[in-house]
Each structure stands twice: as structure tokens, then as C-alpha cells.
Design a protein that fits this description.
It is a single chain. By secondary structure, this protein is mostly helical. The protein has one domain. The chain contains four helices and no strands. Helix 2 runs antiparallel to helix 3. The longest helix has 36 residues. The radius of gyration is 27 Å and the shape is elongated.
């Protein structure tokens, strides 16, 4: 019997089971998850910094002319404005890069919440 012929007749069954083909393109699923996480974190960051700006304004009003309290409120206001500016610039640059890469609607919030089931 020819050994080459013996190896050629072996019928190897197709691989099946969990993890072999998880039902689609894993990269697309990961892209969707990362996009949703970034979208939610961006919304949370904008809300957080908006609240910080409001609280800083309230602290400034209630400082009653005390230089130490006014300086703390001014610092908090500056940090809030700087933070919200950084978030807006980061989202804008991310959107620009996504558009140049050919990703359509990177900032579609309605689609984001629809995909999350909200």
C-alpha cells in the first residue's frame, strides 16, 4: 500500500463548536462595542463638566468676597471649561479622522442608543 495514498484518503471533519465561527465578523462587533463605549463616556464627560461649571459659578457667588474661596471657585471654573473644551476637541478630531477613514456617521447618537436597546 502506498503511504501517500493512505494520507490522501483521510477525511478530516470540519471544525465546529463555540469560538470557531462566533456568528459574524469579530472586528465589526468589537468596533461597535468600542464606539458605543466612547459615545457613552463622551456624553458622561460633557454632563460632568457642565455640572462642574455650574457648581463653580455657584461657589463663586457664595464666596462673599473671600479671596481664598474666590480663587478656589475660579480654579474650578477654569478646570471645568478646560475639560469640556478638551472633550469637544477630542470628539471633533475623532470625527474628522473617522470621516477621513471612511466611517459614516461616527457621532450618530440616535443610532448609538438604538443599537444599545435604549
Amino acid at each position: 500500500m502506498d503511504p501517500k495514498r493512505l494520507l490522501a484518503d483521510v477525511n478530516v471533519p470540519a471544525l465546529t463548536g463555540p469560538g470557531v465561527n462566533p456568528g459574524g465578523n469579530g472586528v465589526a462587533a468589537m468596533e461597535k462595542i468600542v464606539g458605543q463605549v466612547i459615545g457613552v463616556l463622551t456624553i458622561v464627560a460633557v454632563i460632568y463638566f457642565a455640572i462642574q461649571i455650574i457648581l463653580a459659578g455657584y461657589a463663586y457667588i457664595n464666596s462673599e468676597g473671600d479671596e481664598k474661596n474666590m480663587a478656589a471657585a475660579r480654579s474650578r471654573l477654569t478646570n471645568g471649561v478646560l475639560g469640556i473644551t478638551i472633550v469637544i476637541v477630542a470628539v471633533g478630531l475623532g470625527s474628522l479622522i473617522a470621516t477621513l477613514a471612511g466611517i459614516t456617521n461616527p457621532l450618530d447618537i440616535n443610532a448609538l442608543f438604538t443599537q444599545m436597546g435604549l
